[in-house]
Amino acid sequence: MFKKSDGNALLKLAVALLLQLSFYTPASSSTTTINHDTLTVDSTQLALKKIAGQLDFLKRTSISGYLQAQFQYADSSGIESFEGGNFAPNVDKRFQIRRARFRITHEERLGIFTIQIDGNERGVKVMDFYGRLTDPWIKTFSITAGAFSRPFGFEVNNPSNLRESTERGRMSQTLFPSERDIGAMLSVQFPTKYKLHFIKWDAGFFNGVGRLQTDFDKQKDFISRLYLIKANKSKTIQYGGGVSYYRGGSRMNTNKYYNRINTVNNVIQFSADSSFSNAGSIAAKEYKGADAQFSFHWLLGQTTLRAEYIKGYTPSTKSSTLNMDVQPTTDIYKRHIDGAYFYFIQTIGKTKLQTVVKYDWFDPNTKIKGNQIGAKGNTGKANNFTSADIKYSTLGLGIIYNWDDNVRLTAYYAMVQNEKTQLTGFTQDIPDNVFTFRVMYKF
């Protein structure tokens, strides 16, 4: 019987032979003259040498990927959703190719090169495209440049093929859409032979506009995370945690900067700073975050707990708190935000089943309460708060069946709750819960 490793080796040998045959043309004689000397080289030995080089190249190149196909059923048609994107008008049920990732990584002595693409029914796009160099002496310092995940928090960097919930929380998707950005990052982590190898520090500067977007201002955002991952000798207990910091901003295109919340005409609302110097200047952005993870094996199986909290302030438009990836032409609103998520994951004994409970919230304007949004003052006119100021919370319940190392089945129900406001359409909770059944195949 062949082992899996034997099959991989035979596959690589077959690929190398095909590559060799595609470039190799038999010589008219069995000898080759080198520099007019009488030395002859057997052409078979030259061919084998080339094959060995090609096998070595393939050995340092890895290919991986995964496909996530799913069916979803929403409470109502045409809802806005963070469970795989908004539903089209008149649609409450849909099939989706949520993700189809293909990743190639090539490793050399000093570093690696990675490219990852993603495809779905809406097209194909590049997700990751970066190189990483590590110092050859103590192998502690690395520099990464290109398009890659922002070094902030746990969930943003937790791969989609490993994450137990179907999607990242509303907070992560709003503040870090697409998770990636273009920039350069320094990483510091000692090799395993050192006592402090379990600590890692990442810090870098990024455009701040997201993956493969053209930057629209001179501001470069600073992002940093210091974290640790440890386990006991038997690996039955694992724990980790980190702190993150983000400092950046976005260019303002007008002179009105709504950076204060005051009471005007007996109603609370945004107030503008109308200085002419605002146009062309930078509206600041700052996030602070902390995350923790804990996992342990016991009689009932493996239990995993995770939590993360972020607070700060962000520049946004009147109608949206999403991180801006193009130059906004309208006025900028400064919003104080916070959000969090909590995971409880339980493996059922020694079975292939896992249960998932996740709760998250995101408040895009911590300075006001829900019943103040859309309130009317003495003039009878509603204030200037919008649906972008509404707080949402989501309770997700899921069950996972890990068929084998390659196939995973997930059933997940996301129950979304919004604040009750005085805005038309948001005086009650919107029926926007979503059920997802997903099949994932990875290799």
Assign a percent range to the helix content: under 10%
Instruction: Give the topology string: H per helix, E per strand.
Output: HHEEEEEHEEEEEEEEEEEEE
Strand content: over 45%
Our count of helices gives 3
Number of strands: 18
**Structural class label:** mainly beta
Unreliable stretches, pLDDT < 50, 5 or more residues? 1-7, 17-39
Gross morphology is globular
Give the termini distance in whole angstroms.
Answer: 22 Å
For the largest beta-sheet, the strand count, sense and barrel status come to:
16 strands, antiparallel, barrel
Account of the 3D structure:
This protein has about 450 residues and is mainly β. Helices cover about 10% and strands about 45% of the residues. It is built from 3 helices and 18 strands. It has a 16-stranded antiparallel beta barrel with strand order 1-2-3-4-5-6-7-8-9-12-13-14-15-16-17-18. A hairpin with a 2-residue loop joins strand 10 and strand 11. The two termini are about 20 Å apart. About 30% of the residues are buried. The N terminus is likely disordered.
Summed up, what is this model?
The protein has helices at residues 4-23, 43-59, 170-175, and strands at 61-74, 93-107, 111-120, 123-134, 141-149, 180-188, 199-206, 221-231, 237-251, 257-264, 267-273, 282-298, 301-316, 332-347, 353-363, 392-402, 407-418, 434-442.
Q: What's the helix and strand layout?
A:
Elements: H1 4-23, H2 43-59, E1 61-74, E2 93-107, E3 111-120, E4 123-134, E5 141-149, H3 170-175, E6 180-188, E7 199-206, E8 221-231, E9 237-251, E10 257-264, E11 267-273, E12 282-298, E13 301-316, E14 332-347, E15 353-363, E16 392-402, E17 407-418, E18 434-442
Parallel strand pairs: 10-14
Antiparallel strand pairs: 1-2, 1-18, 2-3, 3-4, 4-5, 5-6, 6-7, 7-8, 8-9, 9-12, 10-11, 12-13, 13-14, 14-15, 15-16, 16-17, 17-18
